[in-house]
From TrEMBL:
This is Glucose-6-phosphate isomerase. SUPFAM superfamilies: SIS domain (SSF53697). CDD domains: SIS_PGI_1, SIS_PGI_2. Keywords: Cytoplasm, Gluconeogenesis, Glycolysis, Isomerase. The active site is at E354, H385, K509. The lineage of its organism: Bacteria, Pseudomonadati, Pseudomonadota, Gammaproteobacteria, Oceanospirillales. The keyword Transcription does not apply. It comes from Alcanivorax xiamenensis. It is found in: Cytoplasm. GO terms for molecular function: isomerase activity. It holds the Pfam family PGI.
């Protein structure tokens, strides 16, 4: 496939114009940018798919965004977007397309996807209606999802975020997530759970990941110990597998009818839309899961068709490029003002840093600029009492990303009718808006007090974007996550890197295998570097005593 070309001369000119802008307006205080333009918010905010994106508290002028779009044009972004949605080989180091968007297509366009969704629906309905039985004939009360990385973070994040959206009918099981390879999550869970009413989902695109397979083996041993007399029915009644490799699932013992499939063309960190999302569907039911897919599809359509000056993923990507490559702001904080989104920072960390933490371009050369910033985050109101001090008065610029829902939306349970709960949502939104204001304007946001001692001085000028949902519904969460996926792609195109591989992680897996052998047998210990040799000896001595 011929890769889209980029216009180098045009790119060089745009970069030069942007560097000039960075020198001039990029260093101007955000307060001055607002003072110069009464319509700044209108010029620098966009909405699509129920989301409002406010870029006006960034250190950017509307004219600079225009230049960034010229740079995107020079980088061939249009062709790359077409290539992504045509199923072109955008993942060139692994010679395959990246078609996560296909997982939210209609049945006519993606029949194989819907075939798997129907199988998943069947499982979800059987669990919800109490028809899925454990090997002793009891209905399922608990589901344990065993997975790591993309097979854990997305399902965990979305099922917690949407927990208040109950399935239409039937009861849902309690959901548990196990990822860490050391057994520290699975052990206390197994102490608590009833093996007869527990269903285990082994979620692994490759079905080779040692973290997941070790937790799965422990869980299998637990069930075998509980029901030594049961043979085939144990695996059939208690294990479901989700993977791109049917043979490995079968080899492990997953029954054919308990296997759900995904495809090589879905990256792990983009896979929550596939049957890897089974825990999400168990949490909210299939109708709501389809709404979640529909929200993502809305964003796909917007990304493909909206002109760039109205395009939210393109703008979000370009603003981040501005911060990193032109203003040299190398850190970004993801700050949801909603406890339901408590796992979103970890999800975004994987999506962005695993995708764009790269330093070699398509032509095999070292990149000449920074790629992905360092990203971290936490639930905003909690972080206000923890690391915000650095955002407020530290020495480093940090680009902040606030996420908030204007309305709380649906509540469930006995507490739902408590009036103070609505006030609590109001408090949270007020804090979100207050913090972005204070970060941008500094002490001038309040009545300036000239007599402040230096240690109380607060200069502001910390840039932020606010992403506001109407409410945290399955459809809006779907749109929000697809927005992140597409902005990652926009940035990868701008940097000329492949966002769909993770060779660094693969090398980490290889070296771990080697070290397991060293620690178990002592073989090869002398070939290690001085530090690793001493550490390995230290461990072996203590394990042998
Ligand atoms: O789903 P699996 O094949 O078990 O992979 C789980 C995770 O492992 C790897 O280390 C990758 O870096 C992740 O992108 C992936 O999501």
């Amino acid at each position: 496939m011929a890769l889209p070309l980029m216009d180098t001369l045009m790119a060089r000119r745009a970069e030069k114009a942007l560097r000039d802008d960075a020198y001039r307006s990029g260093r101007v205080h955000i307060a001055d940018l607002f003072a110069q333009d009464a319509r700044r918010f209108e010029r620098l905010s966009l909405s699509a798919c129920g989301l409002l994106a406010d870029f006006s508290k960034q250190r950017i002028a509307a004219g600079t965004l225009e230049k960034l779009r010229t740079l995107a044009e020079a980088r061939g972004l249009d062709d790359w977007i077409r290539c992504l949605f045509d199923g072109g080989e955008v993942n060139w180091t692994e010679s395959r397309p990246a078609m996560h968007w296909r997982l939210r297509e209609c049945k006519k366009n993606a029949p194989e996807v819907h075939e798997q969704l129907t199988l998943m629906e069947h499982i979800v309905n059987r669990v919800h209606s109490g028809q899925w039985r454990g090997c002793q004939g009891d209905a399922i009360t608990d589901v344990v999802n065993i997975g790591v990385g993309g097979s854990d973070l997305g399902p965990l994040m979305a099922s917690v975020a949407l927990h208040e959206h109950h399935p239409e009918t039937g009861g849902r099981p309690r959901l548990h997530f196990v990822s860490s390879m050391d057994g520290s999550q699975i052990a206390p869970l197994l102490d608590e759970l009833n093996p007869g009413t527990t269903l285990v989902v082994i979620s692994s695109k490759s079905f080779t990941t040692m973290d997941t397979l070790s937790n799965a083996a422990t869980t299998r041993a637990w069930l075998e110990r509980a029901f030594p007399e049961v043979n085939g029915a144990l695996l059939r009644c208690h294990f479901i597998g989700v993977s791109a490799c049917s043979e490995r699932m079968t080899e492990w013992g997953i029954h054919q009818e308990n296997q759900l499939r995904l495809w090589d063309w879905v990256g792990g960190r983009y896979s929550l839309w596939s049957c890897i999302g089974l825990p999400i569907a168990l949490a909210i039911g299939m109708d709501q899961f389809r709404e979640f897919l529909a929200g993502a599809h809305d964003m796909d359509q917007h990304f493909r068709s909206a002109p760039w000056d109205e395009n939210v993923p393109v703008s979000l990507g370009l603003v981040d490029i501005w911060n990193l490559n032109f203003l040299n702001i190398t850190a970004r904080a993801v700050l949801p003002y909603d406890g339901r989104l408590k796992h979103l920072p970890a999800y975004v960390e994987q999506l962005e840093m695993e995708s764009n933490g790269k330093s070699v371009t398509r032509s095999g050369e070292a990149v000449k600029h920074h790629t992905c910033p360092v990203i971290w985050g936490e639930v905003g109101p909690n972080a206000q009492h923890a690391f915000y001090q650095l955002l407020h008065q530290g020495t480093q610029p940090v680009a902040c990303e606030f996420l908030v829902a204007a309305r709380h939306g649906r509540r469930n349970g006995n507490s739902a009718a408590l009036e103070p709960l609505e006030d609590q949502h109001g408090l949270t939104v007020a804090n979100c808006l207050a913090q972005s204001r204070l970060l941008a304007f500094g002490e001038a946001a309040l009545t300036p007090d000239q007599s402040l001692p230096p240690f109380m001085h607060y200069r502001g000028n910390q840039p932020s974007t606010t992403l506001m949902m109407d409410e945290l519904s399955p459809r809006q969460l779907g749109a929000l996550l697809a927005l992140y996926e597409h902005k990652v792609f926009v940035q990868a195109v701008m940097w000329g890197i492949n966002p769909f591989d993770q060779w660094g992680v693969e090398m980490g897996k290889r070296i771990a295998m080697e070290m397991i052998d060293v620690l178990n047998t002592g073989g090869g210990i002398n070939e290690l570097d001085g530090s690793s040799r001493a550490l390995a000896r230290y461990v072996r001595e203590r394990q042998q005593n």
